[in-house]
Specification:
This protein is of the alpha+beta class. The chain has one domain (5-293). The chain is built from 6 helices and 15 strands. It has helices at 5-19, 87-97, 117-125, 129-132, 236-266, 289-295, and strands spanning 21-29, 34-42, 45-49, 52-58, 60-66, 70-73, 77-80, 137-143, 146-150, 173-175, 183-185, 197-201, 209-216, 221-227, 279-287. The strands form 3 sheets. The chain has a 7-stranded antiparallel sheet. Strand 1 and strand 2 (34-42) form a beta hairpin. Helix 1 crosses helix 5 (236-266).
Length: 302
């Protein structure tokens, strides 16, 4: 039996939500510590929902790393030189800083949850001088709970391919590895590749688990809805229908993200540190027990 239109639309949203972000971690045993390499990959996606084309992307994300029996050192960070910023991104950022551009209807998912477009714009206007001035743009930064990838401004580089209008500077490609013009600051492993961090064992540790969870951040999900046939909208009625369709799809994305987070928690993901408005994009886990035994670090399985 072929799925109904509503069921197919829900399935398409589920597929898109599962494709926006991926993360991979690789622990490597050194002499008396473990080096963790990582790569987070992002993309934008589009699908047809009835008369409308729906395009989705992320401006920023969070990576949480759980390592109960280890202390972390040398957290990876990266910047992008001003020479890599695209003209469109520079112009858009300047417009925001001048207060001339407000967030468009439908561009901020979490407006549904009480974060107004004006509030988001005000937050953007208070970005640090690093983002406002001529200093390098911090595309990856270490935080007390992990790492942020991108910011409200997104990725300033020119998109790798053709993307929907409104998604030009969403996260795209690979991050955390020192590739694609990322000027990395961090430890290198024995192969010369940049590491996400170094983990040293805690005294008495008995849990060799290392797990990573990639989260979408509040306000990061960008949703653009346009007519699939590109027919100009010239009537109030057609405009209202388009807005209704956009609202329905945004609500559906909220539901999907909540369901994915609930499933991840039931499968063992550590979601208790998630804040309101954050949702699970992807997760991965590595048992470093064999690495611990090989390197004699003294961490044992509980």
């Amino acid at each position: 039996m072929r799925p109904t239109g509503k069921k197919k639309k829900f399935e398409d949203i589920e597929k898109v939500a599962a494709q926006l972000g991926k993360v991979q971690i690789t622990p490597i045993a050194e002499d008396n510590f473990i080096t963790v390499r990582a790569a987070a990959k992002f993309t934008t996606r589009s699908f047809i929902a009835g008369k409308y084309k729906v395009s989705v992307g992320l401006t920023h994300a969070l990576l949480q790393l759980e390592h109960p029996s280890f202390e972390m050192e040398h957290a990876y960070q990266a910047t992008l030189a001003k020479e890599t910023w695209s003209e469109s991104w520079t112009n858009r950022r300047a417009s925001h800083l001048d207060g001339k551009v407000k967030a468009k209807f439908g561009m901020k998912l979490w407006g549904l949850l009480g974060l107004s477009a004006e509030g988001q714009a005000e937050k953007a206007s208070k970005e640090s001088s690093e983002q406002k001035g001529s200093l390098p743009y911090k595309i990856v930064g270490a935080t007390p709970s992990g790492w942020h990838i991108g910011t409200d401004w997104g990725d300033p580089r020119t998109p790798q391919g053709t993307v929907a209008e409104g998604l030009e500077h969403c996260l795209d490609g690979e991050y955390l590895s020192g590739r694609n013009e990322e000027k990395a600051d961090g430890r290198k492993d024995k192969t010369g590749a940049f590491a996400l961090c170094v983990l040293r064992p805690k005294a008495g540790g008995n849990d060799p688990r290392i797990s990573a969870t990639l989260l979408g951040a509040s306000g990061s999900l960008q949703v653009v809805v346009t007519r699939a046939d590109e027919t100009p909208q010239i009537t109030l009625n057609s405009h209202n229908k388009e807005r209704e369709a956009e609202e329905e799809l945004r609500k559906a994305f909220v539901d999907i993200c909540i369901q994915r987070s609930n499933r991840a928690q039931s499968e063992g993901a550590r979601t208790e540190k998630m804040l309101t408005g954050e949702f699970v994009l992807a997760g991965t886990r590595s048992d470093s027990g064999c690495l611990v035994e090989r390197s004699g670090l003294g961490v044992r399985s509980g």
